[in-house]
Design goal:
single chain, 212 residues, 2 domains, 4 strands
């Protein structure tokens, strides 16, 4: 049995977790799951939300279910410290700050923008957690303006999640094509872990389309 069971759908945030698995060098078995009610019992048990990705770590006599893409990324970094993806002491502030920024305010801002939800009252913007889409995007750009990666000049696991926001945002138009976002995404796309994981998902998507 592989160390991890990876429940995913290639047309989902499962692409983030697959990239993280490859960066960590983790041994995993994928289980492809379709959207809809007909899903494996083991998947539903591991994640009653029925969301992708879902990771089950077979750790000795224990199985540990991990959900939420950002949590999966950091969990893999912790479980595979030799991969060098964890932050050093002086890097932890930026690592956790922007990992949670991308998973919280930035994700919420993009979702609200796509849904056409706007909050014009400045007082109520604070209640939303992300302020406004423009404010979140500007903050994201400011973060990337003076560094190559989340923690400065070194790639860490935070870049898998934060970078996925930048790559998908630029590629699918949920973020403006600002120089900082484009350059950051191109740096990440050159990584072998990204290319290997992306190829697997692209092949799965192509096969699904061909099968009709």
């Amino acid at each position: 049995m592989a160390e991890y069971t990876f429940y995913t759908n290639p047309m989902s945030r499962g692409q983030i977790a697959r990239w993280a698995l490859h960066e960590a060098g983790a041994d995993y078995e994928q289980v492809l799951v379709e959207y809809g009610p007909d899903q494996p019992d083991a998947f539903v048990k591991a994640n009653p939300m029925r969301k992708f990705p879902t990771l089950v770590h077979h750790n000795g006599d224990h199985d540990h279910a991990v959900t939420e893409a950002a949590a999966i990324c950091h969990y893999l970094a912790e479980m595979h410290p030799d991969a060098g993806l964890l932050p050093d002491t002086h890097e932890k502030a930026a690592y956790f700050r922007y990992l949670f920024f991308a998973a919280g305010p930035m994700e919420q801002a993009i979702t609200a923008q796509n849904m056409g939800w706007t909050i014009d009252d400045p007082q109520k913007q604070g209640m939303a957690g992300f302020g406004s889409y423009d404010r979140a995007v500007d903050a994201f750009e400011t973060m990337l303006a003076d560094r190559d990666y989340v923690c400065g000049d070194r790639f860490t696991m935070a870049d898998v999640y934060v970078g996925s926001q930048a790559i998908w945002g630029v590629d699918f138009g949920t973020l403006p094509k600002r120089d900082a976002f484009v350059a950051y995404g191109e740096r990440l796309k050159s990584r072998e872990g990204y290319k290997a994981a992306k190829q697997i998902d692209n092949d799965l998507i192509a096969k699904a389309k061909a099968d009709g």
